[in-house]
Every structure is written in structure tokens, then in C-alpha cells.
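Residues and backbone
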Amino acid sequence: MEPTPPAKSTTPPPPPPLLRRFVAIDTKISQKIHILAKPFLPHSLLLLLELSADFRLFFPVALSLLLAPLLTPGPIPNPNPNSGPIHLLRPFLSPLLLGLLLDLALIGLIKFIVRRARPVYNATMSVAVSVDHFSFPSGHASRVCFVAALFYLSAAALADAVFHLRSTSPAVERWIGSDQGRTVSVLVSVVWAWAAATSISRILLGRHFVSDVFAGACLGVGEGLVAFHFLRF
């Protein structure tokens, strides 16, 4: 009777020593930032930033803007008379919507592959799907940096939309003034500030490690470039 072969171990092999050292340093720095900032920053403000970048809120708002009839005024000249009214923000909103879906797919795939656990001091987060149990990369950081990058790249299209809105509505002209380029520059700066604050808040809330946020931010900027060049219609 032949001896029974030993059962194969299902325990994954330990990561390389250099990676373990990096993870340990990343974990220590992230926890120190979280502990030092916790007494000074209002928790409600950090939660508001978290909510503002939630996909479940952001995607329906962007879709509603794309479908809004007020953004498709008829009097704007259309080079193709058979194509109907021009949507003022379509050059921006179409890559925004498709880019958000791309971001959701990539973040879910990478989290499923890497499977890094969230910080142990992240005790108050309610996960929407099972992949949200994982930490790397930060989906909020990728989403807000994607939006900020797309705002920056779409500045010309946004300026055109502001110009048409200003020319068709005296109320809009009084509110934004006559310099649509400056208005768009201020808007882009505000969006970048929101993206930076939201990304940092992920560490301050204890949701993510520093490397999660950095990787998510880089991924988001790359998604912005892809959406701007290849996902516009």
C-alpha cells in the first residue's frame, strides 16, 4: 500500500523581505498620521469629504447632468442641422461617466488581486460590497483625482459651455462675469483642492494607508488621460 502524499499547504508564501519592510513602514507612518490628526480635525468634515466622492452619489449626479434638458439649449448654432440640439457639457460628461465606470472596474480588480487588509483602526466603515474590505488602492483617491484631471484637461470645453450659458442667460452672466476663462480656472483649482483634501482624508480617517492613496491618485490621473483622449463622444 503506497503512503498517502502530504496535503499541499494552502497558505500563500510570505512576501519578499523588501516588500514586508515597505509595508511595515507604510503602516507605521499611516497610523502615526491618523493618531496625530485625530484630535484636531472634525470627524464630520472628513465624513462629508468621503460622501462627496462616493460612487453611489457621484455617478447618478453626473448622469443627471448629462440628461438635463436645461443643458441642451436649442438656440446654440449646430454645425449638423440633423443632429439636434448641442449638449453644452457632453465633451466633459461623456468621458466622466465612462471614466467612472472604468475606475470602478479597475479598482475592484486590483483590490481583488492584491487583497491588502484595511488598517486595524478602521472600525467605523460600512462596506458596500465585499471587495471594499480590501485597502489597496484607494478608490476614493482614484475617483477624485480622475475627476480633477478630467476637469483640467477639459478646461476648453468647460469654457465653451460657460460662454454659451453666459450668452443665453443674463443671470449667469451677472454671476460669473465676462471672463469665462478665469471662471473655469477657479473651478479647476477648487476641484483639485477638493481632490487633494479628499485623498488626504482617507489617511486621516484611517480608511487607507499612505501607499493606497498615492497609488489610487496616480491611477486616477492616468484614467483621466485615457478618458479624455479615448472615451469622448
